Amino acid sequence: MSHAQDRIGAWIGWAFFADLAKALALTFGYMFSKPVTMQYPDKEKWLPYSRYRGHHFLKRDDEGEIKCVACELCARICPCDCIEVVPYEDEKGKRHPAKFEIDTARCLFCGLCEDACPADAIALGQQYEFSSFSSRELVIGRDDLLAKPGKAATGGSVVAARLNVEPKVLVETGGRQGYNWWRNIRRR
Ligand code: SF4
Ligand code: SF4
């Protein structure tokens, strides 16, 4: 197309406000389309995929004993140096963690501790709501880690939720998930 034709086209565009009409059509199109905003957290919540790396949890064996043998491998491999393990030996010579703490304020959720653990004792679950105004509260001890929810079998979807005024239960879901995952993770 020649330069003169370009100019004529531009003038015709101006004359009929073609660009303006296009922009307004886009704007009105969005105004009347279905909103995609998630009503978090009072109406909807995101259930992460099962491979999501959220809050850590410690596992128990079939007898209900903590699986961790306090080998400290997780603490050694952690790039943030945010795991502290203090071992003790019981009367049978078995090692257990007398102290097991993770500073989740420093953790980058890389999952190396889970990969390194020879006893399959620690993993990163799907809980992602654990912010706090106090960094001290983000240092999580052994008993709290044992009480944390594990990995959910399903995920990757938005589930219905509603705010709850019961103490310590801020949000619960209304959708069918097999078990009330959100209620579980909000209980401490
Ligand atoms: S997820 Fe990574 S940074 Fe966090 S505690 Fe485990 S090894 Fe350390
Ligand atoms: S969680 Fe695993 S790697 Fe860490 S101290 Fe316990 S047994 Fe060792």
UniProtKB/TrEMBL annotation:
Keywords: 4Fe-4S, Cell membrane, Iron, Iron-sulfur, Membrane, Metal-binding, NAD, Quinone, Repeat, Translocase, Transmembrane, Transmembrane helix, Ubiquinone. The keyword Repeat applies. The chain crosses the membrane at residues 12-33. It is found in: Cell membrane. The keyword Chloroplast does not apply. [4Fe-4S] cluster 2 binds at C78, C107, C110, C113. HAMAP family: NDH1_NuoI (MF_01351). This is NADH-quinone oxidoreductase subunit I. It comes from Rhizobium altiplani.
